Amino acid sequence: MTRPLLPFIANSPWTAALVVALASLVVCALILSTLLRTGFAWWLATDIPNDRSLHARPTPRVGGWGIVLVSVVVMLVAAQEVWLAAVLAALLAALSQIDDRRGLPARVRFGAHVAAVALLVGLNPASVPWWALAAAGFLMVWLVNLYNFMDGSDGLAGGMALFGFGGYAIAALSGQIPQLDLGIASAALAGAAAGFLLFNFHPARIFLGDSGSIPLGFLAGALGYWGWLKGTWPIWFPALVFAPFIADASVTLLLRLARGEKFWQAHREHYYQRMVRLGVGHRRTALVWYVLMLAGIVLANLALAFAPLGQWLVVAGWAGVIGAAGVVVDNTYWRRDRTLLSSRLLKYPLRGSSYADHLIGRGKR
Question: pTM (2 decimals)?
Answer without folding.
Answer: 0.87
